[in-house]
Amino acid sequence: MGGGALLVAGTTSDAGKSLVTMGLCRWLARRGVKVAPFKAQNMSLNSMVTADGAEIGRAQYAQAQAAGVEPRAVMNPVLLKPGSDRRSQVVVLGRPVAEVDAVEYRAHRGRLREVVLDSLAELRAAHDVVICEGAGSPAEINLRAGDIVNMGLARAADIPVVVVGDIDRGGVFASLYGTVALLEPADQALVAAFVINKFRGAVELLEPGLARLAELTGRPTLGVLPWRPGLHIDPEDGLALDAPRPGARAPYGRQTLRVAVARYPRISNFTDLDALTCEPGVVVRYATDPGDLADADLVVLPGSRATVSDLAWLRERGMADAIVRRAREGRPVLGICGGHQMLAREILDEVESGAGRVEGLGLLPTRVVFAREKTLARPTGVAYGQPVRAYEIHHGVVEVLGGDPFLDGCRVGAVWGTTWHGALENDGFRRAFLADVARCAGRDFTPAPDVSFAAQRAAMFDTVGDLVEEHLDTDAVWRLIEQGAPPGLPTLLSGF
């Protein structure tokens, strides 16, 4: 079977599964353990391209970095990318294979189960430990029959499970108890312990509840992780945008650079903007209304999984007119990937939306044609005299018909467009770009000369590893990894 394993499940989406998985990976790696992350099936619009050109969830990419191993497609063998409320693109081992709705997806489950189990076996054979992350909640009993990411995976591979509950939402004890109680007995037998996340206050106040939870379930709580502001490391979905972002409430001043990011329904790879939040004096806020753009020095149109649909959303809300107006006034606008496509004169899409010809915002001399083949690449280039390393994930191909060169796209006045994700993570380029934006906006802002996005990212990995090491019973965690779920765990009344 190979190395040991542990599955980190959660009572809800955004309970902290990704963070706990990352922290466990970092803690183990610092102990000299060869560890890898694994998420069998991920639904996310934040993705990344591996060195060999495969697309995986951005969270799994970050977890691999925290573990000190090269990110690989087998760490996230199935990635679902929603393009609407009903349909998703299915990416298998890094390559898109189908566009399906929930009913059509069932036809793929048998094959995907084999891919998932083979990928996990490959990772376990090559590593001492694999830390698996669940999805949503294991108590989504309507989905249990076809589950390959929560208890279905745990049962198939005989992996012990730890359930994470988010106390900041309230009702954490009921959520933890109810999660176990809703499972069938064979699933309950693998749920070995709990972790409480995002606690603000004195842990002593929780102790009576923790003791009672252990009495009722026969399962211990391995620790209580305290709330840490600013830990937004490559979240999987837009729920993370509802939480306070670093610098989002900083006071304005003449030396503050104000960035407004369009938060359309299918926003993707909004992690591109994380590099801006690490800059002192830069305030990043997400916009859903024209008024949110009024005092911005820079408006960013980020990536989108549904370019034509999200462009229509901008028009319906009056934001498109506001963006065009500010661009014609010489006020800065940046489009990235899907946002770059929106800036074009025209979009021809028979692939993603099937809408055919759609008029773009007309702010750049470009034309977009959607191709059936997805581009997945790790390009390099130079802008403002600075080296840039980036990544590409898109079906829309942008033809540049004029303007000044800007990475793979172009610039006209104070409007920039590029298909490259991750460009702002390059420190020299980011500083030069922000200085140019400040000049165009008439803002007295000078980027800090010594900010390193990579160093701040590594420090956050260590912070998450410290949380695990300092606040969890790591000896108990290690016993679960080595020995599995203890025999004889009580079965709660569940109705099964």
Model description:
The protein is an alpha/beta fold and 496 residues long. The protein is 30% helix and 27% strand. The chain contains 15 helices and 27 strands. Helix 1 (17-30) packs parallel to helix 2 (58-67), helix 1 crosses helix 14 and helix 6 (172-181) runs parallel beside helix 8 (207-217). The two termini are 30 Å apart.
Name given to the CATH architecture of the largest domain: 3-Layer(aba) Sandwich
Helix % is 25-40%
CATH fold call of the largest domain: Rossmann fold
Indicate the proportion of strand residues: 25-35%
Oligomer: single chain
For the record, give the distance between the C-alpha atoms at the N and C termini, rounded to a whole number: 30 Å
Name the strands of the widest sheet in spatial order.
15-13-16-18-27-26-25
Overall pLDDT metric: 93
> Class of the largest domain in CATH?
Alpha Beta
- Low-confidence regions: 247-251
Using the CA coordinates, give the radius of gyration: 23 Å
Jot down its keywords.
globular; Rossmann fold; 15 helices; six-stranded parallel β-sheet; alpha/beta; single chain; seven-stranded mixed β-sheet; 496 residues
In summary, what is this structure?
It is built from 15 helices and 27 strands. It is an alpha/beta fold and 496 residues long.
